[in-house]
Amino acid sequence: MATQKTKKGSPAPHTSNELLENPEAIADRLGRGETFLKENTKLVGGIIGFGILLIVGIVGFQIHKANQNKTAQGEMFQAVYYFEQDSVDFALNGDGVEPGFLEIIDEYGGTDAANLSNFYVGSIYLSKGEFQSAVDHLTNFSSSDFLVQAHAYALTGDAYLELGELDNAISYYKDAAGYKSNEFFTPKYLSKLAIAYEEAGEINQAIATYEEIENKYADAYEFSEARKQKARLEGLASSN
After folding, report:
1. pLDDT tens digit sequence for 94-137
2. How far, in Å, CA of 144 to CA of 159, rounded?
3. Whole-angstrom Cα Rg for the chain
């Protein structure tokens, strides 16, 4: 077979083209691969086995979590009922037959039911004046639901405000007000934020927050109060 000459200045032929055109090169490559497999049978088998075990483990974990979550949601029903009836001690600790939210968190950690239980427990502790416990549970809760998540941020801000941790309160109120803003709840969260700013001595920030309510939420229940508080703070600021 005549050898094709490479013109001066032309790029050398690609290795892949050489393999396609040269059966001996293909056989050599295949031979090397076969030799590697023969010499490393245990290694290759171990890698494949590990991959299978990993996949089985992941699937098994997901099934286990799904089953746990289904069980936990069933057991959670009575605790939610007690919460709605303001029987908060039963909601927290159970009634001796059905578990409360705290047991669900301990027994089914990592499930959706345990996550939601943290929201309920945080809300209960806040109502009982146990503010640090409220923070501990509310900050362990997360949700993709814009109403519930924003509410959780606001409750966390309430707990920090009661603890006198104004920077944290401001941060969580800002999160609540900025999380998927809407005309129904955002003005309420902005009002809380303005109060926290005033408590922290940040009068101009408080004025700006009330002004945001005034400019964006004219139909909100908080509108009139925001105008009144803004005027009060502007008078306070001008007298200083």
Report:
1. 999 999 999 999 999 889 999 999 999 999 999 999 999 999 99
2. 22
3. 32
| Opening angle at CA 114, ends 168 and 123, nearest 5 | 45
Structure tokens at 146: 């814009």
Report the alpha-carbon distance of residue 157 to residue 139 in Å, rounded: 10
Q: CA 127 to CA 32: how far, in whole Å?
A: 72
CB atoms within 10 A of CB 117: 30
Amino acid present at 97: V
Helix (H) or strand (E) run with residue 162 in it: helix 146-163
CB atoms near residue 120 (< 10 Å):
24
Max Cα-Cα span within the chain: 101
Interhelix angle for 112-127 vs 41-84, to 10°? 40
DSSP label at residue 215? H
Q: What is the pTM for the complete model shown?
A: 0.72
